[in-house]
Design a protein that fits this description.
heterodimer; A: Alpha-D-Glucose-1,6-Bisphosphate, Chain A, domain 4; 7-stranded antiparallel beta sheet; B: Uridine Diphospho-n-acetylenolpyruvylglucosamine Reductase, domain 3; 5-stranded antiparallel beta sheet
Chain lengths: 175, 261
């Protein structure tokens, strides 16, 4: 399964790049991620719980960042074993570029699933992988921009709360 | 299969209580999806709460406004035998195999919302109402994409209320091994317009084909569809059929359903 898409994030390319390397941001972005430890240089260890219909599997595996060209592009690769369920493996080539003071994040995702999951779920794996990739980059965008788009664009929403959320994340960066 | 405890409450309230305590519990309908999943060790709940012994959730009747009310724990075979909503009974009579039809339930199928299951298309096209232990949910608000629904954790489908359309028909292009719909289209002509619901085709599960609904509402004939095309974006691709093939089937089956209604 392969797919490509892009998202526009209201932040500078440098900010987006730093966020990509931040374990806290990654943890909050990976759908179903329960634990994530490690560092960008040495790789992360992750525990991810996924539920699709009646199936519920816990994947333990590694996430690594490679081919890093600061602050333009990198490759995120993850591979995990889900016990009896089988294994899942996925990678995304991510590119960052600037447009009107914002960052365009484009990605090509490739996902592979094996074992019983693949055997029993072939008809839904593509759709599910697409949903996961979409959620990951949606979450990632939300992590950087603060509360969800609707809230941010909502005129009633106080400016401060949006600003505060952004600040809190940037504060975390400098601390 | 891993070990689990089994509870068989006889009242909805008791089932709700069991599902809301601290033990990791999973409601069990007819078990036609869940049990094979457990056998493959793809899920390991600590406790199953069977809904099969709750008599108030079984059976079929009509309410004062003529809607067909089907209890959540009613089997496909019972719906197939009923006949008061012929298109729905015909659809139920072709789900899976006899074992599936005699064990599987309407509530279980809808709670699972498999993207290729038949029932979701009937509920959506009929503009049915899904009744739970807590509230009533309109069909348009109930389905939220592949395997996801508006149901909260521990919420149970107690009943489904179907308005009976003037005309209706379900056409299923069978995936012969699984007997799921490779594509299934349910067309229902109501007094206030036509609804067309498609299952099996989209990565996002059941959906309404609104262009066809508009065309059929002004002219209920297969010919009214001739100028329409279905986009293959976001359609399922697997070894049984490509996205383009499924998109093509949607139109063909909609035409057949209109002619047969």
């Amino acid at each position: 399964m392969e797919l490509s898409d892009e998202k526009t994030i209201a932040a500078s390319v440098e900010t987006v790049w730093t966020a990509l390397l931040d374990p806290e941001v990654l943890k909050a972005s990976v759908p179903g991620c329960k634990e994530l430890s490690g560092s960008a240089e040495e790789g992360f260890q992750a525990t991810v719980v996924q539920k699709v219909g009646p199936v519920k599997a816990t994947f333990k595996g590694d996430v690594s960042l490679t081919e890093m060209v600061e602050p333009e592009s990198l490759t995120i690769t993850g591979a995990g074993k889900g016990g009896a369920a089988g294994f899942a493996k996925g990678g995304a080539n991510v590119r960052l570029s600037e447009a009107d003071g914002q960052t365009v994040l484009s990605y090509d995702v490739e996902a592979k699933v094996g074992g019983k999951l693949a055997q029993l779920g072939s008809r839904i794996i593509d759709g599910f992988a697409k949903k996961m990739a979409d959620q990951f980059f949606e979450n990632f965008k939300a992590q950087i921009e603060g509360p969800s788009d609707e809230e941010a664009s909502d005129e009633d929403a106080p400016e401060d709360s949006d600003g505060a959320a952004k600040k809190s994340w940037i504060k975390k960066l400098v601390s | 299969m891993y070990n689990f405890d089994l509870e068989r409450p006889t009242r909805v309230a008791d089932a709700v209580k069991l599902l809301s305590d601290s033990v990791e519990s999973q409601p069990l309908g007819g078990g036609q999806t869940l049990i094979p999943t457990l056998k493959q060790r793809l899920a390991s709940p600590d406790r199953l709460v069977s809904l099969g012994a709750i008599d108030e959730m079984k059976g079929i009747c009509q309410d004062d406004s003529g809607r067909l009310c089907i209890g959540g724990a009613t089997t496909h075979a019972a719906v197939a035998a009923d006949g008061s909503y012929p298109a729905l009974s015909a659809m139920a009579s072709h789900i899976g195999d006899p074992a599936v039809r005699n064990r599987g339930t309407i509530g279980g199928s809808l709670a699972n919302n498999d993207p290729a299951a038949c029932y979701p298309s009937a509920v959506l096209a009929s503009n049915a109402t899904v009744v739970t232990n807590a509230r009533e949910i309109a069909a348009d608000d109930y389905f939220e994409g592949m395997f996801s629904t508006a149901l909260d954790e521990g919420e149970i489908i107690t009943e489904v209320k179907f308005p009976v359309p003037e005309k209706a028909n379900y056409q299923k292009f069978l995936q012969p091994a699984s007997r799921f719909a490779l594509v299934g289209v349910f067309v229902a002509k109501h007094s206030d317009g036509v609804r067309v619901a498609v299952t099996g085709a989209s990565n996002n599960g059941v959906f309404r084909w609104s262009e066809a609904e508009a065309a059929l509402s002004s002219d209920f004939s297969a010919g009214a569809l001739s100028d329409l095309t279905v986009s293959a974006d976001d359609m399922i691709t697997d070894l049984h059929g490509s996205a383009a093939y499924r998109a093509h089937l949607v139109k063909v089956l909609t035409g057949r359903a209109v002619s047969a209604a």
